[in-house]
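Thread: Newbie trying to understand structure tokens

Hi all, I'm a second-year student working on a class project, and my supervisor (Dr. K.) asked me to get a predicted structure for one chain before our next meeting. I've only ever worked with sequences, so writing a 3D structure as a token string is new to me. If someone could post the tokens and maybe explain what I'm looking at, I'd be very grateful. Here's the chain:
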Amino acid sequence: MSSSNENVKLVATATAAAAAGAAIAYGLMKQASAGKPTGGLMRRNSFSRRSGSIYEDPDLNPHQSSSNLLFPHNHEEKMRRRIAARVAVEEDNMTPRDSVTVKVPASSANMGPDDTIGIAVDLWSDITVTRAEKFEITAEGLGADEMPKDETNYMVTGVVAAFEAANKPVPALKYHVISRIPYARGLGSSSAAIVAGIIAGLVLAGHRLPCWGSEALLQIAAGIEGHPDNVAPVIYGGIQIGIHNGTRWVTERAPTPPGLQLVTFIPDFIGKTSDARNVLEPMEHVAHI
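---
Reply by user tm_fold:
Sure, no problem. This is what the structure looks like when written as tokens:
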């Protein structure tokens, strides 16, 4: 009998505690909704408030709606706020800039049949493009003396393509390259320059390309290069398999084997891809040998 009484007392105590806790929580939310100070407890825990919590401080997020209450089941409101924040970022990204620095990797291609498979290489060049009074290209690092300093440089080609996509005139620009990719040595220096130029041009022009279902950046870069096996890994990283499906360029990432290491033999002379291809006999001649 005494054990039964004890159980009844425990249940009553637990019920009373739960009711008191609910009443306190309700009171705090009412005060928060009315804009009243909520006491030391809320001030101490303010650092842990996040976008998905029940209460949101307008001082922490001035762009939120007039209601400060956001319950776990308010999925639509959560998504609306996330989209609004994303739109604000994208609008900021679409603002024309005066200067931009793009970091691009090297790449190695011809890993499969024809120009289909390429891999990104952990060698990175920095390219800074700035609005200026006159055209200029400066460079430092690997191949700084060998790369062209005029409009034939693939960086310029990429920038021009980006401004054409934005339907805007190309302003006078200054280019500065910190090159860590050997120039014209088989590690995709031209593809890195093309991609960096396109991205820099898009940022300077304040223009955004469509991605899903079109991959416009890949279309422009592969169109300039003539094949996707270098530009695709520069854009997407890893190992990429790219083809033209009769309508547009498409690419897909292939799994990278764990522990894969790359050993490169870099010649001490320039070997442009166009020159190397001219060394080979035409395929129809080779087939009859």
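A couple of things are worth pointing out once you decode it. DSSP finds nine helices and six strands in the chain. Strands lie at 99-108, 117-131, 136-141, 173-179, 239-244, 249-254. Feel free to ask follow-ups in this thread.
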